[in-house]
Amino acid sequence: MKLLSVNVGQPKTVPYTEHRHGLTGIDKRPVEGPVRVAAPGPKGIGASGVDGDAVCETRHHGGNDQAVYAVAREDLDEWERTLGRVLANGSFGENLTTQGIDVSGALIGERWAVGPDVVLEITSGRIPCRTFQGHMGEKGWVKRFTERGAPGAYLRVIRPGEIRAGDAVRIIHRPDHEVTVALQFRAVTTERTLLPRLEEAGEALHPEAAAAARRYLEKYGTQQSI
After folding, report:
1. Cα–Cα distance between 23 and 104 in angstroms, integer?
2. What is the per-residue pLDDT for 176?
């Protein structure tokens, strides 16, 4: 299991972004290392946890619980076959393109050691947005991405440090539950009856997903859960 590339984006003006100034940093490209990774601060204030990476819409992106976004190269390869086009590392706006890791099958709260210093913890899957659809230029992209159910993972920074392409990725902690990134993603998108199960993930779960689970339980209890 290893890191194929570290990808960062610079602010770019485009017609499709949700940002009021028309700026987005979603167009991420591989960079030479080392690149410092650290917790950026709370959502709404902090941006990307990856040095040199732009987050232009901090209401919905960035912050400690979404400091780093990872996508498996294997998922990009599968989309290449589906779309009939080349998808370079960073094409989904991911900071980390991995190899040999089932990113969407990872557990919420799972911890990865990347390189000699950095430790990251999985918090949630990525929810597709209008900016992502515009960046991809594919009709119905949000729906297609959601239906595939392999969203990649957001991670928080537990221990900061430097990373670079080629670094080994090791799973150093797997929590004692079965809430994967893919399950969490389905719970907050297409299968909301799964929301009560998210509580199994505990404090590692992204706060927004945890709040959605609480609201569901307050409204319906557990009788509609799977």
Report:
1. 28
2. 97
What pLDDT shows up at residue 226? Answer: 45
Sign of CA dihedral 78, 35, 120, 166: positive
How far are the Cα atoms of 19, 146, 178 from residue 93, in angstroms, in the given order?
16, 16, 27
Residues 149, 182 contacting (CB under 8 angstroms): yes
When pLDDT is cut at 50, 70 and 90, the band that residue 15 belongs to is confident
Q: What domains sit in the chain, N to C, each tagged with a CATH number?
A: 2-188 (2.40.33.20)
